[in-house]
Amino acid sequence: MWLAVQCSRLSCSKFQVVKDGTMTKKCPYCGRRFKVEGNVVKKFPDQLHTRVYVKKMNKKYGRN
Q1: E strands within 1-64?
Q2: Cα 61 to Cα 18: distance, rounded to the nearest angstrom
Q3: Is 44 helix (H, G, I), strand (E, B) or coil?
Q4: Nearest residue to 27 via CA among 38, 15, 19, 37
Q5: Bridge partners of residue 5, in order along the sequence
Q6: Model-level pTM greater than 0.85?
Q7: Of all residues in the chain, what percent are helix, strand and coil, respectively (each to 5)?
Q8: Distance CA 28, CA 46 (A)
Q9: Residue 43's beta-bridge partner residues?
Q10: Cα–Cα distance for residue pair 28/34, rounded to 1 Å
């Protein structure tokens, strides 16, 4: 299972891909470390669908 998560820093808020079971994630864009649990946007069965969703969401909200 793969997760689409969103960075918890309001000025960043980029969407990212994380494998299920991960406790924390360090945002590669702003450097903030945040808990995955409270920032899950959507779950997917495979990485490919998750990556497509994350790319679409970052483009939609202007977070390239």
Answers
A1: 2-6, 15-19, 24-26, 33-35, 40-44
A2: 20
A3: strand
A4: 15
A5: 16, 40
A6: yes
A7: 25, 35, 40
A8: 21
A9: 3
A10: 12
Tokens 């970052």, located at residue: 58
Residue 37 one-letter amino acid: E
pLDDT digits (tens, 9 = 90+) for 5-51: 999 999 999 999 999 999 999 999 999 999 999 999 999 999 999 99
Residue corresponding to tokens 């490919």: 48
d(CA 43, CA 19): 10
Count other C-beta atoms under 10 Å from residue 7's C-beta. 22
Residue with tokens 């998750």: 50
